[in-house]
Amino acid sequence: MSGVGKTVCVTGASGYIASWLVNLLLQRGYTVKASVRDPSDPKKTQHLLALEGAKERLHLTKANLLEEGCFDSLVDGCEGVFHTASPFYHDVKDPQVELIDPALKGTLNVLGSCAKNPSVKRVVLTSSVAAVAFNGRPRAPDVVVDESWFSDPEFCKQNKLWYVLSKTLAEDAAWKFTKEKGIDMVTINPAMVVGPLLQPTLNTSAAAILNVINGSQTFPNSTFGWVNVKDVANAHIQAFEIPSANGRYCLVESVAHYSEVVKILQELFPAFQLPEKCADDKPFTPTYQVSKERTKSLGIEFIPLKQSIKETVESLMEKKLFTRSARDLTPMVHTVYLLVTVFLLVPCACE
Ligand SMILES: NC(=O)c1ccc[n+]([C@@H]2O[C@H](COP(=O)([O-])OP(=O)(O)OC[C@H]3O[C@@H](n4cnc5c(N)ncnc54)[C@H](OP(=O)(O)O)[C@@H]3O)[C@@H](O)[C@H]2O)c1
């Protein structure tokens, strides 16, 4: 209960990662001032208000990243600020308005409130591997990506990687601003985050698993780093609590191509109908490594990818975001299912 008597702030609390962060902070005894874009929407607040300790120590406030100064009162009196809010989705019409402005201006808006507030001892910014690994440097199994890598905005623009660009510009601006204002900041740079959902709605990274179990005929020809949401939330808190924590921390348990993810799903859920083919005929995008050296100093012992995938699927089922019917079963299981149905029905019909 290292947080007893301490007040911290979390932005974007209704989101996937931030919900877990609020949960762990409350468990550790912190008082949490949290921002939500629309507190009148129960889908954004109910799961938070139901957390243990929420009644006594969670305070929800309405705030939009693009409204200047609206984080002032939220940050007031907080020792730590976890800035997690930032749009994460790919289907965008206007990248500047939908992704880049809220990520970049929103980060500077939150940091501006921190700069005005002497109570803030440290800011933990939820950045991303998106701000680390997209610079055109070749990827291969022997290449080790680490915290010294920075994504290149020009490379992102050329390849229309708008979400990646939004995170790259936001982190870069955050480092410049905090250096200028003398704010102590640490960034957490996770890869694709999976694991159980606390919120009732589907988020982009859990959809990365849902999309391959949802009857798709093919899996994407993509390779990602993967990490469990509980490790990500925990790393944020460790980065705040450990006085010597500094700089950036890449969070990746393992790097795996989708073919590997499908293999794990087959082992875990043999009755699922899973894609057998890759979406294109090109060679699989190569794997690479991501250094765990710095993250070790935060005391993170990563949850293995297999367990994270299991937890994601079970959670999607529990939240009814993934429902299976007889049509989803593999042909062999389907036959067994039909035989059992006939076997059970025939005696009934004879009675
Ligand atoms: N999930 C991943 O794989 C992953 C990996 C690396 C880094 N990250 C980073 O982690 C953070 C959280 O991502 P997530 O996966 O938890 O996504 P999420 O569930 O979509 O959460 C995003 C949060 O940002 C809030 N937000 C977006 N635009 C806003 C605005 N204009 N004003 C106020 N709040 C706004 C959302 O509020 P609403 O609920 O009202 O929309 C939501 O609470 C983001 O910074 C993301 O870039 C995520």
TrEMBL record:
Keywords: Flavonoid biosynthesis, NADP, Oxidoreductase. It catalyses: (2S)-flavan-4-ol + NADP(+) = (2S)-flavanone + NADPH + H(+); a (2R,3S,4S)-leucoanthocyanidin + NADP(+) = a (2R,3R)-dihydroflavonol + NADPH + H(+). GO terms for molecular function: dihydroflavanol 4-reductase activity; flavanone 4-reductase activity. Pathway: Pigment biosynthesis; anthocyanin biosynthesis. It comes from the Eukaryota. It is an enzyme of class 1 (oxidoreductase). One of its GO terms (biological process) is flavonoid biosynthetic process. The keyword Oxidoreductase applies. Residues 8-245 form the NAD-dependent epimerase/dehydratase domain. The keyword Oxidoreductase applies. Its EC number is 1.1.1.219, 1.1.1.234. Pfam families: Epimerase (PF01370). Bifunctional enzyme involved in flavonoid metabolism. Belongs to the NAD(P)-dependent epimerase/dehydratase family. Dihydroflavonol-4-reductase subfamily. This is Dihydroflavonol 4-reductase. It comes from Camellia sinensis var. sinensis (China tea).
